[in-house]
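user: can you give me the structure for this one chain? tokens are fine.
assistant: on it. calling the predictor now.
[tool input]
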Amino acid sequence: MILYLARRLVGVAGVLLAICLVTFTIFYLLPADPAAAACGKTCTPERLAEVRHSMGLDQPLWRQFTDYLTGIFAGRELGEGPQALQCGFPCFGYSYEYALPVWDLLTDRLPVSASLAFGAALMWLVLGLGTGIAAALRKGTRTDRTLMVGAVAAASLPVYFTAVMLIHGVVRVAGVLPYPEYAALTDDPLGWAANLLLPWTALALLYAAMYARQSRSSMIEAMAQPYIRTARAKGMPESVVVVKHGLRSGMTPVLTLFGMDLGGLLAGAVITESIFGIPGVGRLFFDALQRSDQPVILGVTLLAAFFIVAANLVVDILYAVVDPRVRY
């Protein structure tokens, strides 16, 4: 198990380094000038040259990348003299639009996106797995067809449509909930949950539909295996056969799907956060695109890549726990 984990960690480090190199190269070879965007419309040529120097854009590309990579692990100083900006570990660059290091912006918004991601994930797992397993155990019946038709209908609705319909129906027409205004969990737990309920639901309906279809097909395949018939022939209770043998084997593809989805949402749900006005990483990314704030765009991109790779690493470890053959 230790060797398996070591191999996976080496692979993760290589993937993250490659993503960092490719992403950095793409953003800093674009026609847009990050220094001009940071300096503003009324920037003088002298001030533009200062900003370019402080951002390191007057250095060769390889030097810029090595400085950027060094800053992530050890911090760096942007510029020289008394006007130099200190960017502590880990330094993902400096946003002149916000006048803050990118890492400070990310850590400020990350708890908000994490609240959205984990709450929605819990809802879609309960709904999706429950629906998929129930449909698989009643394969070919009216219940199976009804559940799958509902899942297909939910999956066909884009999240922005579902979000707008929830706001209109629940907030404006029924008046059951106020319009979402994010409140921190530590300040107001009930307000935190109430304000995230609609965003959770909008995301959960979309993802639950996909998980229902995936878990149904996986469970049907698992329940048709010879060891299931053997377990039943030994007189094991049906609940033990379904949960211990069928579910454990059938959920392996769902783990892969869950790792990718949760990793992506941790880096921000751009559409959902924008519609509901949630100040998360996705909203930060959207605003950075509007302002051409390339350091923030690059930081969010690398953060998203890290979460997806890390989530896949966790999934691989869970694979090894569920099925020891994976270790070899």
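assistant: here you go. The mean pLDDT is 82. Residues 103-327 form a domain with the MetI-like fold fold (CATH 1.10.3720.10).
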